[in-house]
Specification:
The chain is of the alpha+beta class. The chain folds into two domains: 68 residues, Arc Repressor Mutant, subunit A; 129 residues, no CATH class. Helices cover 49% and strands 10% of the residues. The protein is built from 13 helices and six strands. A four-stranded antiparallel beta sheet has the order 3-5-4-6, sandwiched between helices. Strands 1-2 form a two-stranded antiparallel ribbon. A hairpin with a 5-residue loop joins strand 4 and strand 5. Helix 1 packs across helix 4 and helix 8 crosses helix 10. The model has no long low-confidence stretch (mean pLDDT 84).
Length: 274
């Protein structure tokens, strides 16, 4: 069964209220969401009939495994998006409201904050490859907000963005700072999501995959809040970073077949000298 946004909101609300109050009844959902008793009653009946919740003799609501999985996924995404918007400088109340409707309509305040660094537009899943290809010469990313919502982010060429990259990558060369993965790590993961370099190195709160379809699938799962798709690193970019005497950021390259490791080269001595 395909579950719609309103049902997801109900399941998330039951989860939040159960964490706050312990026992949850329909009237608690009514008071929390401000809906009519009739609307909530009908919604609870549908959720029960479809196996998402159970209702005992006293009217207490309990999330069943399918309902809990959805509720936890939505609530986790809600908390991440709230933090994300607050990191952008959005008021906490508006950030929380936008987190609830992030897959639908964002407030102008939130969009303005995102647009300080990126041009943002919503695209269809079928447009992902073409959108990245069209912006191959730019720092472009696709944000997968779930398995069916996709946004193209294109970095603006502004002094503010350059200053932020410089501040987050002190002492690094232009070749390093201009990498797509550096912009993703610095401006999005570190500055906006609050994942510092140490946690990135230890892969805490994030993971990497080279498979686009897997990234999209995970973005819509309970194990992940969102995913970013980026351009592959060019060989010329690797060369420029190496010539600057620096190492590439983690997980920024993928070479196959893998080179043999552990090979030791000794100085070759002419036979006549032996």
């Amino acid at each position: 069964m395909q579950i719609h946004q309103s049902a997801e909101d109900y399941l998330e609300t039951i989860l939040m209220l159960s964490q706050r109050m312990g026992k949850v009844r329909s009237i608690d959902v009514v008071n929390e969401l401000g809906f009519t008793k009739a609307s909530v009653s009908i919604a609870m009946k549908k959720l029960r009939e479809n196996g998402y919740i159970a209702v005992d003799g006293e009217g207490n609501l309990t999330l069943l495994d399918p309902g809990r999985e959805i509720a936890e996924r939505i609530y986790s995404r809600h908390r991440l998006l709230t933090h994300f918007f607050m990191q952008l400088g959005v008021d906490e109340k508006i950030a929380a409201e936008d987190a609830c409707k992030a897959e639908h309509i964002l407030s102008e305040q939130t969009l303005e904050k995102i647009r300080e660094y990126f041009d943002v537009c919503e695209i269809e899943k079928a447009e992902i490859d073409a959108a990245l290809e069209k912006n191959a010469a730019k720092k472009a990313y696709v944000l997968c907000a779930g398995s069916d919502k996709f946004y193209l982010l294109v970095l603006k060429d502004t002094e503010k963005a350059r200053e932020a990259l410089d501040a987050l990558n002190p002492g690094k060369s232009d070749a390093y700072k201009n990498l797509d993965v550096t912009v993703l790590h610095s401006l999005i993961l570190e500055k906006l999501f609050g994942i510092d370099k140490e946690n990135m190195a230890r892969q805490i709160n994030l993971a990497y995959t080279r498979d686009k379809d897997e990234a999209i699938r995970l973005a819509g799962s309970a194990d992940c809040n969102c995913a970013f798709l980026i351009h592959p690193t060019a060989v010329s970019e690797i060369k420029d970073v190496a010539l600057a005497g620096e190492k590439m950021p983690q997980k920024s390259t993928y070479f196959y077949p893998k080179l043999i490791t552990g090979l030791v080269m000794n100085e070759l001595v002419p036979v006549e000298d032996i």
